[in-house]
């Protein structure tokens, strides 16, 4: 690799004025607590600066300090320390509401996003939320929580990094009227395959209709 290519491969520091937003963007797609070291490396910034940004965001979300617009209000989510890192979570005061929303939809039809996510898990299991998000191109935290609450997927251990792995459950097979995963239709050659995924989503939808 030439010196020019090496220089081009180096991470570009995130501008100061975009650092807060960049930290939020990374935390929004993370499927496990993110350490200060990992954030500093990803954003090419000093760890102390990243720590200060995290503390500031946590206080802002809790309504303890003004945000960029000068206003002070508690958010519906919090930023907290967990397992040696930081992660976003719904605010504790809304725990009953969130539980009612997730569990209350147990008899409802699955959304398009849920069907796509379920198809990815079925054919890539066991798989982490990060990998599911990479295949779908969007954040899947909420969808994964819904599928888990409805008993269609379950945790299947962790990767060495600590990321939780997910797989489908017996209830998933029951919904589809299948005896085993071997009865799933083939999906070739790799996900995502829009036409094949569409057929599978149609089949899942048809089987789950009352």
Describe this structure in words.
The chain contains ten helices and five strands; from the N terminus they run H-H-H-H-E-E-H-H-E-H-H-E-E-H-H. Strand 4 and strand 5 form a beta hairpin. Strands 3-5-4 form a three-stranded antiparallel beta sheet. A two-stranded antiparallel ribbon has the order 1-2. The protein folds into two domains: 3-91, Arc Repressor Mutant, subunit A; 105-208, Winged helix-like DNA-binding domain superfamily/Winged helix DNA-binding domain (Arc Repressor Mutant, subunit A), CATH 1.10.10. 21% of the residues are buried. It has 210 residues and is mainly alpha-helical.
Q: What's the total number of strands?
A: 5
The percent range for strand residues is 5-15%
Shape: globular
Distance between the termini: 59 Å
CATH-defined architecture of the largest domain: Orthogonal Bundle
* CATH fold description of the largest domain: Arc Repressor Mutant, subunit A
Structural class: mainly alpha
What's this entry about, in short?
This protein is mostly helical. The chain has two domains: 3-91, Orthogonal Bundle (Arc Repressor Mutant, subunit A); 105-208, Winged helix-like DNA-binding domain superfamily/Winged helix DNA-binding domain (Arc Repressor Mutant, subunit A). The chain has ten helices and five strands, in the order H-H-H-H-E-E-H-H-E-H-H-E-E-H-H.
Comma- or semicolon-separated keywords:
three-stranded antiparallel beta sheet; Arc Repressor Mutant, subunit A; 10 helices; two-stranded antiparallel ribbon; 210 residues; 2 domains; single chain; globular; 5 strands; mainly alpha
């Amino acid at each position: 690799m030439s010196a020019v290519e090496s220089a081009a491969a180096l991470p570009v520091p995130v501008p100061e004025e975009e650092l807060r937003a960049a930290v939020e963007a990374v935390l929004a797609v993370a499927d496990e607590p993110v350490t200060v070291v990992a954030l500093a490396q990803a954003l090419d910034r000093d760890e102390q600066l990243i720590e200060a940004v995290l503390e500031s965001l946590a206080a802002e979300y809790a309504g303890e300090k003004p945000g960029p617009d000068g206003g002070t209000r508690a958010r519906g989510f919090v930023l907290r320390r967990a397992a040696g890192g930081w992660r976003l979570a719904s605010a504790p005061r809304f725990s009953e509401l969130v539980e009612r929303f997730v569990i209350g939809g147990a008899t409802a039809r699955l959304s398009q996003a849920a069907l796509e996510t379920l198809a990815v898990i079925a054919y890539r299991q066991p798989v982490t939320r990060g990998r599911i998000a990479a295949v779908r191109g969007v954040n899947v935290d909420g969808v994964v929580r819904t599928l888990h609450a409805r008993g269609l997927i379950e945790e299947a251990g962790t990767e060495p990094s600590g990321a939780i792995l997910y797989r489908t459950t017996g209830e998933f097979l029951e919904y589809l009227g299948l005896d085993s995963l071997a009865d799933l239709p083939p999906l070739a050659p790799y996900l995502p395959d829009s036409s094949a995924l569409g057929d599978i989503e149609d089949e899942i939808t048809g089987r789950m209709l009352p």
